[in-house]
Amino acid sequence: MRRRSQVMPAEFYAFGEILWDCLPSGKHAGGAPFNVAAHLAQIGVSSALISCVGRDPLGDEILEVAGHKQVNAEFVARARIGLPTGTVIVTLDEHGNGTYELVRPAAWDEIRVPKKALDAVSKARAFIYGSLAGRSPYNLDQVDRLRIGLVPAKQFRTRHAMMRRSPAIVKSWQKQPASTAFA
Q1: Which phi and psi (to 5°) does residue 112 adopt?
Q2: How far apart are the C-alpha atoms of 172 and 175, rounded to whole Å?
Q3: 12-182 adopts what CATH topology?
Q4: Rounded to whole angstroms, how far apart are CA atoms 11 and 54?
Q5: 120-160, pLDDT tens digit by residue?
C-alpha cells in the first residue's frame, strides 16, 4: 500500500510576489514575501508562500529554487496564459546604486487564494503580505479574504484599512521598496 505524501501545514505564511531580480551579475530569486519565507525556513521555521508564477521556464526554475530553500510552494499557482513570471530589471550606476524596473504584467498581480489556503492561514502562527502585491486591486481582495480568519493585528488592519480608503495612499504605497512587508 502506498502512502500519499502530504505537505504539513506551515507556521508562517507570506502572501505576495515571488520574482526574479535580474542584476548585471545574473538573476536571483526574490520578492519580499519570498525572501522572508526563505529566511525563516533557513532558521527552521516552516514557511509557505501564497503567490503566482507564469507558465514559463522562469516559473519552473523559481519553484525549483523555492523547493531548495525549503519554502512550501503548495499555494503558488500558475498564472493564466499571458502573465509571465515576475521580473525586476536592476541597473547599477557608476557608484553601485540600483535602479529597479518592475516589468508589467506579472503573474503575481493575480494571486489566487484557494479555500485550502484560507483554512491554513487561519491556523498559522504568523502571516505577512508584501507591499508590491498591493498594486493590484485583485490582490487586495485576496488579502481581505485571508484577513477574515486571522486574529486581529493592529498594524496589519490599520495599514490595510488606509489602503482601502484612499487611492492616493495606494499609489504612494506602490512606490515603496520591495523589501517592505507588514504583519
Answers
A1: -85, 140
A2: 5
A3: UDP-N-acetylmuramoyl-L-alanine:D-glutamate ligase (3.40.1190)
A4: 26
A5: 999 998 999 998 999 999 999 999 999 887 766 533 443 44
**Prediction pTM value:** 0.80
- Largest pairwise CA distance in the chain: 62
Output the nine-digit C-alpha cell for 164: 482601502
pLDDT digits (tens, 9 = 90+) for 164-176: 444 444 444 344 3
Domain residues of the chain, as ranges?
A: 12-182
Coil vs helix vs strand at 142? helix
Residues 6+ apart with CB under 8 A from 71: 34, 37, 38, 41, 47, 48, 49
Dihedral angle at the C-alpha atoms of 54, 60, 61, 66, nearest 10 degrees? 90
The CB-based long-range contact list for 27-31 (8 Å cut-off, 24+ gap) reads 27/87, 29/62, 29/65, 29/66, 29/69, 30/88, 30/178, 31/86, 31/108, 31/130, 31/132, 31/178
Give Cα 119 distance to the centre of its chain.
Answer: 18
Q: Which residues contact 5 (CB under 8 A, 6 or more apart)?
A: none
